[in-house]
Amino acid sequence: MLPAPEPTPDAEEDELFRLLRQVDLAPEATQRTIAAALGVSLGRVNTRLRAAAEAGLLKIGDRKGPDRRQRFAYVLTPRGAAEKNRLTDTFLARKLREYDALHAELTGTASGLSPLKIRTRLMQTNLSPIPELFVSHDSAQKLKLDAGDLPSWDLTPRQVCDLELLMNGGFNPLKGFLDQADYENVVENMRLADGTLWPMPITLDVHEKFAATVEEGQDIALRDPEGVILAILSVSSKYTPNKSREAEMVFGADDVAHPAVNYLHNTAGDIYLGGAITGIQQPIHYDFRARRDTPNELRAYFRKMGWRRVVAFQTRNPLHRAHQELTFRAAREAQANLLIHPIVGMTKPGDVDHFTRVRCYEAVLDKYQPSTTTMSLLNLAMRMAGPREAVWHGLIRANHGCTHFIVGRDHAGPGKNSAGEDFYGPYDAQDLYRAHQSEIGCEMVDFKHMVYVQERAQYEPNDEIEDRDNVTVLNISGTELRRRLREGLEIPEWFSFPEVVEELRRTSPPRSKQGFTVFFTGLSGSGKSTIANAIMVKLMEMGGRPVTLLDGDVVRKHLSSELTFSKEHRDINIRRIGYVASEITKNGGIAICAPIAPYTATRRAAREMIEAFGAFVEVHVATSLEECERRDRKGLYKLAREGKIPEFTGISDPYETPTNAELVVDTEGFEVDDCAQRVLLLLESMGLIAG
To answer: Which tens digit of pLDDT belongs to each residue from 254-300?
Structure first.
């Protein structure tokens, strides 16, 4: 008898894939059960199980019971789950190649399917399921118990958004946070190391102290801010990124005026961890649950409705009449159904909060035909990366089953740079998207700038109005809308829907009725606290809103008594002040803060926290160091000169002078009342207090 042929590498991989998949579906199954499910001998299964366990893909446990022949149980490890995900792609790609070859042999023609390679977009229609990174429910329960003993990282809000889309397939073909090779190639070339198009670095940034406790080859548990284990990261790469290079290549400039560049340099950790993700459970959302869909849930809905062409409209702003007309035209142009797909993760600082926006969307959803339109919320952390972001958004929408995507003018633009110019050209995003459209798999629909033509009482594309000289063209910019809301002015019905305006007025009342924060900054002894006390008394005299003073010394005593005066602890102190002030502002009160706050990045962080809920008024008390030292009521400067107080602002530690403060005052030669009056006049001019 001829000896049995040696198994090929493909057959070996297929067998391992089937084995891992079976263990995932039925954790703790016996060898006999696994052998029966796979249709192989008990001896073969025993050999493969032992080999997989030695490779760290399975965990062997003891089974209780009288039958000694079934004394072992088998459970996937995080590395086994990651390997199963990798082998799934390999298996599918191989089967599609085999199908293509068989089709050619039987018909003499190619199948028409695109050539595929590992980690590329595996599914050929917008209706087929896409790979997720979750293990089965039973395996997840076992892994969650094991993960309790692993080192754990508490995810930031941005990392939670990224992890959710990694696990549910929104970031397909990524199998986890980028390792160094993938990261560097994405930064330089918008591609993964294997050549697959991917424009945005999806990285797990951690601080150096935690990174020092982690080694490559180690598993760590990833937890949400409440401590719930969401996933396990099998660390395959630990590296220090070149953040300046990342800023230049991804965002176009190493300029902290860009919110993502500021985040990169002043919030993100200095070490990146890369590796495969094993998903255990989705992040928990208590808001708008019925509106949150995974990519596969949306694909199933499209399949049920018979929607083979779907155009996605992304927005991070409330919907107005121009947006409605734009979406109608885009759907007609693409001959597609419409998915309104707003982002409810992290958007640009200062944007309308997502609770208000979703209420606005729901208020006008009945203006659309329900048989051709649906809405779903996307928990994405935007980077405001303009052209790269547009390509990224297209890939994400393709994963969600969309065939078309509306790309706007200055799509995902962050505003002005430090020189007062736009970061990106108005059509850079459309140009880059068009260049990669075939790889994205989601056709672009150009954004039309819609304006209202009064004589015809309708919206029309601005560049298609041929009789412009004979008609009245009306438009209200976002800046103008915010001004009208702030000052309680009329918002015409031709611009927005009454339901939307009512909701915006409810959550964005006139500034004179909103909470706000006055943030004094300056050297010790500059007069911050004195002016702040005077302002507090004058505002309390006016009445109408509660006023809270968060003076530096008082906060140190009651909120930050355990902190030292190191840079790290001073930053923590200012962030605490910013958080408390943001809560006061959110609830309609007035917060007056008077810390030294020497660092630009920390002041900006406080501004962003507060501006999510109301106005932030920065007042730089620019009294000179010489004058502050002459006053020196507490004798601190003298002690600092003698070296008895280390890291003292202005002497042994720098004070970074504000460059964008709303007001600069100097107390030398001026009475406190004069300085306070200047602050009150500013608040009045901004509409924050009545004249």
So the answer is: 999 999 999 999 999 999 999 999 999 999 999 999 999 999 999 99
Between CA 353 and CA 362, with CA 356 as vertex, the angle to 5 degrees is 135
CA distance 303 to 413: 34
Q: In the numeric block, which tokens belong to residue 371?
A: 């048989």
What is the pTM assigned to this prediction?
0.79
What is the residue whose two structure tokens read 């003073």? Answer: 549
Q: What average pLDDT score do residues 373-400 get?
A: 96
Residue 384 structure tokens: 């405001």
Residues 6+ apart with CB under 8 A from 259: 348, 349, 384, 414, 608
The separation between CA 361 and the C-alpha centre of its own chain, rounded to angstroms, equals 21
583 CB neighbour count, 10 Å cutoff: 16
Phi, psi values for residue 420, rounded to 5°: 80, 15
Q: What is the pLDDT of residues 173-183, one digit of tens each?
A: 999 999 999 99
User: SS3 for 458?
Assistant: strand
User: Six-digit token pair at 381?
Assistant: 């952390």
User: Can you tell me the distance from the alpha carbon of 392 to that of 385, in angstroms, rounded to the nearest whole number?
Assistant: 9
Residue 531, pLDDT above cutoff 50 = yes
Place of tokens 């001019």: 685
What torsion, rounded to 10 degrees, do the Cα atoms 548, 551, 552, 558 define?
-60
Question: Which long-range contacts (C-beta less than 8 Å, at least 24 apart) are formed by 625-633?
Answer: 625/523, 625/650, 627/525, 627/526, 627/667, 627/668, 628/523, 628/524, 628/525, 628/526, 629/525, 631/525, 632/525, 633/525
Strand-pair partners of 35: none
Per-residue confidence (pLDDT) for residue 479, from 0 to 100: 79
Active site residues: 315-317
pLDDT at 380 over 90: yes
Residue 383 has what pLDDT?
96
Query: Are the C-beta atoms of residues 237 and 301 closer than 8 Å to each other?
Result: no
The rounded distance, in Å, linking the Cα atoms of 691 and 682 is 11
Lowest-confidence range among 2-16, 139-153, 202-216, 333-347?
2-16
DSSP-derived secondary structure for 431-444: HHHHHTHHHHTSEE
d(CA 274, CA 258): 25
Q: pLDDT category, 491, cuts 50, 70, 90? A: very high
Is the bond preceding 173 in cis, omega lying within 30 degrees of 0? Answer: yes
Q: Which has more pLDDT, 554 or 398?
A: 398
The β-bridge partners of 590 are 516, 547
97 by Cβ neighbours in 10 Å (0-12 / 13-18 / 19+) ranks as middle
What pLDDT score does 65 carry?
Answer: 56
Query: Which backbone phi and psi does 411 adopt, to 5 degrees?
Result: -60, 125
- Residue 238 above 50 pLDDT? yes
